[in-house]
Automatic annotation (TrEMBL):
SMART domains: PKS_KR. Pfam families: adh_short. Transmembrane segments: none annotated. SUPFAM superfamilies: NAD(P)-binding Rossmann-fold domains. Gene3D superfamilies: NAD(P)-binding Rossmann-like Domain (3.40.50.720). It comes from the Bacteria. This is NAD(P)-dependent dehydrogenase (Short-subunit alcohol dehydrogenase family). Belongs to the short-chain dehydrogenases/reductases (SDR) family. PANTHER family: BLL2957 PROTEIN (PTHR45024:SF3), DEHYDROGENASES, SHORT CHAIN (PTHR45024). InterPro entries: KR_dom, NAD(P)-bd_dom_sf, Peroxisomal_Beta-Oxidation, Sc_DH/Rdtase_CS, SDR_fam. Residues 10-203 form the Ketoreductase domain.
Length: 306
């Protein structure tokens, strides 16, 4: 295997790496010299079942390239499982340098029809999973004075999408969590960033197509391969990114975006204070031009990927 030395010798944990985006990130990490822990419980998209197969297959792919990898089937949704994943890296490779929090499931449902189980399951894997693995890795990162977290967020949370309240809440929560990690661990030389990926994957393939517009949107996404996400992840894991932290990036085919984060856009002031009536008469009309419309992701990313 030709090593390009971008992250030579670094140990990288990639969760949900048995297929899709996670697999492509793991493969490119290995091609760039990293030793990789391939974590995947081998479940269906809905989180059902368990199989060592997917993680083991990716580990074997990396070995066939001349790289080093180990497979792991612990669940990120449980704190003990997350600790085992990090310990796995320490036991096999002696250290850990980067965590890519990629594991995810979907339970798409309109909010008014969403069950407790559908809400809990998605929050547990995405938001709790990201916290659990990050918390477990924080100790070795802190001790060695370095480390990189790469979390997968989504424009479903950053912008909005229909029938994804659980997923959107989790993904926007991850953006907030990433910022907190970046702030709290900055003094220890640890970085934390998010990527919102546009890529055809099992998760995207489950989107219900109920209109010509939705069909056209899905067809565009089908052309965006998971491999397009991996180069940014490798860069963020490298020492070349040591001054990049607390950011939210998006990758769409050959485009890389840095996403805005909430900041005040307009204000109104009254020295005598506000009443409900003066808010109606003055504040809201003055602020209305800065209101956000009820966009979904496809409204904002309306041009064809290049």
């Amino acid at each position: 295997m030709t090593t390009q030395h971008m992250i030579d010798g670094k140990v990288v944990i990639v969760t949900g790496a048995g297929g899709g985006i996670g697999r492509d990130i793991a493969l490119l990490m290995a091609r760039n010299g990293a030793k990789v822990v391939i974590n995947d419980i081998g479940a269906s998209l809905e989180g059902e079942g368990k199989s060592a197969g997917p993680a083991q297959r990716v580990a074997e792919e990396i070995a066939a390239l001349g790289g080093e990898a180990t497979s792991n089937t612990d669940s990120v949704a449980e704190a003990d499982g997350a600790r085992h994943i990090v310990q796995n890296a320490l036991d096999v490779f002696g250290r850990v340098d980067c965590v890519v929090n990629n594991a995810g499931i979907l339970r798409d449902r309109f909010f008014h029809k969403m069950s407790d189980e559908e809400w809990d399951a998605v929050l547990k894997v995405h938001l709790y999973g990201t916290f659990n693995v990050s918390r477990a890795a924080a100790e070795p990162f802190k001790a060695q004075g370095s480390g990189a977290f790469i979390h997968m967020t989504s424009t479903s949370g950053l912008i909005g999408n229909l029938a994804q309240a659980n997923y959107s809440a989790a993904k926007l929560g991850i953006a907030g969590l990433s910022k907190s990690i970046a702030l709290d661990l900055q003094k220890f030389g640890v970085r934390s960033n998010c990527i919102a990926p546009f890529a055809w994957s099992r998760m995207i393939s489950s989107i219900r197509i109920d209109s010509a517009e939705q069909e056209a949107r899905v067809e565009k996404i089908r052309q965006m391969t998971p491999a397009k996400i991996a180069p940014l992840a490798v860069f963020l894991a490298s020492d070349g990114a040591q001054d990049v932290t607390g950011q939210i990036f998006a990758v769409r085919n050959n485009e890389i975006f840095v996403m805005s984060q909430p900041r005040p856009v307009r204000s109104v002031h009254r020295s005598e204070g506000w009443t409900p009536e003066s808010i109606a008469e003055h504040a809201i009309p003055a602020l209305r031009s800065s209101f956000h419309s009820l966009d979904v992701s496809a409204d904002v990313f309306s041009w064809d990927p290049v």
